[in-house]
Amino acid sequence: MNIRRDIINITIVYLMTILYVVFIQEIFGIAIFILVLYGVTITIYISIQQKLGEDKESTLGVVLQKLNQTKKENEETYKHFLSLSKTLGSGVFMVNDEGMITFSNKDIENYFDIDLNQKNYKEIVEVTPLYRFVDKAYLTEETLKNQIKYNERYYELISKPIFEKDIFTGSLILAHDITQLKTAEKFQKRFTADVSHELRTPLSAIKGFSEILNRDDEMKEEDKSEFISLIQKEADRMEIILSDLLVISKLDRIDYELELLPVNIKDIIEESITVLKSKINEKSLELNINVEDCTLAINKVKVTQVILNLIKNALNYTDEGYISISGKIDQKFYIITVSDSGIGIAKDKQDVIFKRFYRVDKARSRDTGGSGLGLSISKNVVLKHGGDISVESELNKGSVFTIKLPIEK
Ligand code: ADP
To answer: Among candidates 394, 283, 407, 257, which has minimal Cα distance to 336?
Structure first.
């Protein structure tokens, strides 16, 4: 190292001076030595000063460079955080250790219809459930999770405390809109309750009839066979409900996709009519058929089920008059209509009949062996084909059910 060499140099010069003074003792020589010594000392002093200056500059340079780098890194992280917060699809905001909201994204402001930026969190007291959560998160400095309801929507809130060297510097609050999830949860609970109710009714009937049969040894043969046929009817109803439920649970699966193959729709409509023709004749109803040929990419089994359901309904809810079935190409769609001159459906019921288990007249539906699931399954199937189903009806005049299926070219 240079400093060590300078020290050695200066020591040598000092030693030589001492030796010269001790052994030679000549004033002029001593003066020259002292001058040389002075010169060397000054040179070394200047070089040390220069080196110190250089070191200082380079150290300062390194510190400045590091600071710049950290600033750049921080800016990068902030930019990433900003773009993440914009595309997150959830609300996010930050409360610092003084309770000030230092950052908030658009989603959180839209959720609660409030401007949060640069406000103290105590100013959002009017958004009571959010305020309570933030207050708790800020005071406890803990990770918290809770679900709240605000303006008829549900949110899940999560708070994460931020610590720097064990010192609390604020909380990060996240809010997810979970309304859809909650609605699905509610729908599922309601559906489970409906299913149990629907199955309990025929089950109780079967239990009751079989108890009577068991108890009464002296029952007449004709009464016995009547009870047995009632038991059979209720068991059949249970079977229909269970098989419809199976169809629904399949259709509800997210990964369930219908296999679509080219089929002549006219064949499907005519096959469905053939299945029910004898029942239509039994009721002496007039049957009008006007169906055009057309090849559609559809699921044959499911579309047959839909058409059968509509014709069965027309038959069940029509006591006299006619049933008309038509199939026509209308530009990019194939339109199927099933019309009847039956009991009709009131205006306010025309939407709800497509809901699961909804029946206008429960007793009549039960008598005809309906599960109350037919139209909801039909709607699901038609929508899965990219089509649409609708009804036009007038009480005591009749109904027209229309299915629109896309024709893929
Ligand atoms: P259901 O098994 O009860 O027939 P659906 O889902 O097929 O179940 O139909 C739901 C309800 O819509 C029926 O209970 C009935 O009240 C009404 N409905 C359906 N089709 C007709 C129709 N053609 N005429 C009158 N009411 C109908």
So the answer is: 407
